[in-house]
Design goal:
The protein has 10 helices and 23 strands. It has one domain: FAD/NAD(P)-binding domain.
Length: about 400
């Protein structure tokens, strides 16, 4: 029988909330801490939308992980007060014809081998079915119907409520100061309020703040800022499904991706390029000229949006790891400290399985997904990782 432990979870974003919920459902005494308010307005998952897709080039591991996650999303959608994941499909387009080894080509081939009902999209089809696009600039692509987007902020809100209903003790307004350590053993943490909290396991799930709070992790992970903009669409009919699903535009080379417009005309577009190294505690500011780059992209892709009014801009912070894979493991130098971070911009979509992976690691159980996220020494990325750094939009250029 599994020993019941007191587990202190630091961070109530998607990593922390899913871990806290799963661990509590397994009988542990779980305390969830966050500076608040919740959902935290600066957390990466506190947004109007995140992409749910399984298309990962030749990386079969993430295909398998997302197939498992989709089962969870389907089940969660029956439990939400209203559906929060929307299966609009995913349109992946390229500015050049595909070649073996390219991200789009490889994704399409893997999808076919797995029997998924993906559909090739050529220029003529794009012009007819997706009229908002400047079709002559995108000669090849495909549509995957098993994809879409989730209302991410609302999902986190729901997860926090589920945690409380399950008996997780929520401590909102608590700010981490330092670990409580005795030799190599971590026994809890001290808050900035000078309160001290004791537990058998300290689970650090503070997202982009993780390497700032635990500087010994800074060689393996760091905070990166990525720009997100909302615009007001001029013609709602052309920017909603089925003629405008979740999409990316030659993502491996450009970083562009986005979402269908909401019923109020809000359209979210983002670019996930190299980003900017940032201090997560510092004020957030998008560099000058970023909006101009968005509008230049519109001229070549969505001409109707060139002069669309800007409604909102945000520098979204990710906790990037050196290899783009998540970090879910005990610190080998600090007994009792479990790190659950390193989302690298593509973690949210796996929310229904993240808590199970983390809980299995916490309990020392076998989990065939966990090995990819185990503690590892930073080093050179392999060929695939060097070309593609994964994000919730798709892949990010290094």
């Amino acid at each position: 029988m599994q020993e019941i432990k007191t587990i202190l979870v630091l961070g109530a974003g998607v990593y922390g909330a899913t871990a806290a919920l799963e661990l509590r459902q397994r009988g542990h005494a779980v305390h969830l801490f966050d500076p608040g308010p919740l959902p935290h307005p600066d957390a990466a998952s506190t947004d109007i939308s995140k992409v749910l897709r399984m298309d990962y080039g030749n990386d079969k591991f993430y295909w398998d992980l997302m197939l498992a996650a989709f089962e969870g999303w389907d089940e969660w959608n029956t439990r939400f007060e209203r559906p929060l994941w929307h299966q609009t499909g995913f349109l992946m387009l390229s500015r050049d014809n595909w070649k073996p080894g390219g991200f789009e080509y490889d994704s399409y081939q893997v999808a076919l081998r797995r029997g998924l009902p993906v559909e090739p999209i050529d220029q003529e089809t794009l012009a007819v079915r997706y009229p908002a696009w400047k079709a002559e600039n995108y000669p090849q692509g495909y549509f995957n119907p098993r994809a879409g987007w989730a209302e991410s902020g609302e999902v986190v809100h729901w997860l926090i409520r589920e945690c409380q209903a399950a008996g997780v003790v929520l401590h909102e307004g608590v700010r981490f100061q330092h670990l409580l350590e005795s030799g190599s053993r971590v026994s809890g943490f001290a808050a900035q309020s000078r309160e001290r909290f004791q537990g058998d396991i300290v689970l650090m799930a503070a997202g982009a703040w993780t390497p700032a709070l635990l500087p010994h992790l800074s060689d393996a992970m760091w905070a990166t800022g990525q720009p997100v903009f909302h615009f007001k669409v001029p013609d709602l009919a052309n920017f909603q499904p089925p003629g405008f699903p979740v999409w990316n535009a030659d993502i491996a080379n450009t970083g562009w991706y986005g979402f269908p417009a909401k019923d109020d005309g809000t359209l979210k577009v983002a670019n996930h390029g190299p980003g900017w190294r940032v201090d997560p505690h510092a004020p957030r500011r998008i560099p000058d000229g970023t909006e101009d780059k968005f509008r230049a992209f519109f001229r070549d892709t969505f001409p109707a949006l060139v002069d669309a009014p800007k409604l909102f801009e945000r520098l979204c912070l990710y906790c990037d790891t050196w290899d783009g894979n998540f970090w879910i493991d005990f610190d080998p130098q600090r007994e009792g400290l479990l790190i659950c971070a390193g989302g690298s911009g593509h973690g949210f979509k796996f929310a229904p399985v993240l808590g199970k992976i983390t809980a299995d690691v916490a309990e020392g159980r076998e989990n065939h997904f966990a090995a990819r996220f185990a503690w590892r020494k930073p080093g050179p990325m392999d060929h695939e990782e060097a070309r593609f750094f994964k994000t919730d939009g798709d892949v990010r250029r290094k």
